[in-house]
Structures are given as C-alpha cells and as structure tokens.
Amino acid sequence: MVSGGDTDTAVTEDTSTFQLGLDDLKRRGSALLVVGSVPTELYSRASKQMLGAPDEPRRRLLVLNGSTPLDDRLDPGVERSAEWTRVVRYATLERSAAASPSPAAAVPSADDTCERWIDGGLGRLGAELANDVTEFDTLAGGLSPAELRVAFDCLPSLLSRYDRDHVFRFLHVMTTHVRARDGMVHVWSPGDREDEVNRLLEPLFDAVVELDVEGSEARQRWCLRRKDVSSGWFPLES
C-alpha cells in the first residue's frame, strides 16, 4: 500500500509500472490532486500519511484555513518547530479583531513558533510559500528527494474569491516551485474527480488520489497520469 507518499502498493493494475511510477514521483518531485466527496476527517488521515510518518526526516509545510485544528492535521510525534514544520493560516477575507490577536496578547505556545497568519492576495501567499521552501532548503543544506512535503488545504477558499484562471496560475507556480526542490505537494479539492473544477485543474498534477467510502470502509485509489496506470482501490489506514 501507499504510505506517506512513499512506495509499497498492495493492489495495482500493473504492479511493476505503478511501482516505478511512484519511485519516479519521489525522485523528481511531484504534485498530487486529492479528490473525493468524503468527510474532511478522511482527507486529514490521507494527508498525514502523505506528509510522512513522525519518525521520518521530513520538512513539512501546511497551508490551512483558520478554523482547522492543527492536531487534526499533524501526528502528535511530528516536531513542531520552524526548522522542521511550518503552518501557514491563510485568510482570504478580512479577519475580525477577535480572530487577529495583538502581538502582546499572550505568550506563544509551542505550536505558535511554527505557525503564522498570512493576509493578502495570491501573490503574497505565493511569495510567502516560496520563501518557506527556500528557507527549508537552506536549513537542510540542500533538500533530499521527497524530504519536502507540502499540504495545501485552501483551494476551496481560493476558488470562492478568485476566478479559476488566477487560481490555475497560482497552483501552476506553486507546484512547479515544490517540484524544483524535489518535494511532494498535495492539494485538497473536495468533490469527485469528474467535477468540472477538478477536470480543469487535473493537468497541473502528476497524480490524482481519489478518496471514497464503501460501506464502512474508507479507501483510496492513486492514478498516475504520466504512466496512465492506477493502483486500484485499497484501504485508507487509520
């Protein structure tokens, strides 16, 4: 099975081709579009695996909405320091005074040291994320393949404010920048793979990860676009 964006597939239409495709995604960097009309909790489980197990030396960058609890998106054992983990809260709209505490409001918690808010347009967001990736590369003395893992949860918020062409261009630049450091970025787009917006965005990505629920079982299917091969459905582990 696929774990943490790493290899090992249990069910494939063509095991050798699929395995080689996964190895290639790790080696040269990749962008994954994660889709599915499923509860957010299932996406969170899949994303944690793609971000890598807590004992793996990963540089993690999460781009979250303001209301998402960090504990829902990071395993407890992941080191929450700016050297290894950075969390960006993106506010596409003006936040209220209650949502924007003053700098002197409180002593930062351990999570606050790796977490920050960003306001402004897509250009500002893109510049901040590019700076995080560059700083991770400097801290690592050169990122190894698949060391950088990026989770981007804010696509629905962007689509609610900006036209699709602007969002398309933003995603193109962001995914290209992550690939250039041999990193792996996954973007959450709720809805089925055949939804209009997902069909529009899919060409930007190297693979599509479909999430689904069959009966009481959560499952996933990885479709590698360049190899034109699918893993087939297999369980999404807890």
What does this protein structure show overall?
- The protein is α/β, with parallel strands linked by helices and 238 residues long.
- Helices cover 32% and strands 24% of the residues.
- It has 6 helices and 10 strands.
- The protein has helices at residues 15-28, 40-51, 122-140, 155-161, 164-180, 196-201, and strands spanning 30-36, 59-64, 85-91, 115-119, 148-152, 184-190, 207-214, 217-224, 229-230, 234-235.
- Strands 1, 2, 3, 4, 5, 6, 7, 8, 9 and 10 form a 10-stranded mixed sheet that branches.
- A hairpin with a 2-residue loop joins β7 and β8.
- The longest helix has 19 residues, at 122-140.
- The two termini are 13 Å apart.
Output the structural class.
Answer: alpha/beta
How many distinct beta strands? 10
Average pLDDT figure: 86
The share of residues in extended strands comes to: 15-25%
Helix percentage range: 25-40%
**Helix/strand order, N-terminal first:** HEHEEEHEHHEHEEEE
> How is the biggest beta sheet arranged?
10 strands, mixed
Distance between the termini: 13 Å
Number of helices: 6
Low-confidence stretches: 1-12, 94-110
As an assembly, this protein is single chain
Radius of gyration, in Å, reads: 17 Å
The 3D shape can be described as globular
Furnish the topology, listing elements before pairings:
Layout: H1 15-28, E1 30-36, H2 40-51, E2 59-64, E3 85-91, E4 115-119, H3 122-140, E5 148-152, H4 155-161, H5 164-180, E6 184-190, H6 196-201, E7 207-214, E8 217-224, E9 229-230, E10 234-235
Parallel strand pairs: 1-6, 1-7, 2-3, 2-5, 3-4, 5-6
Antiparallel strand pairs: 7-8, 8-9, 8-10
Helix pairs in contact: 3-5
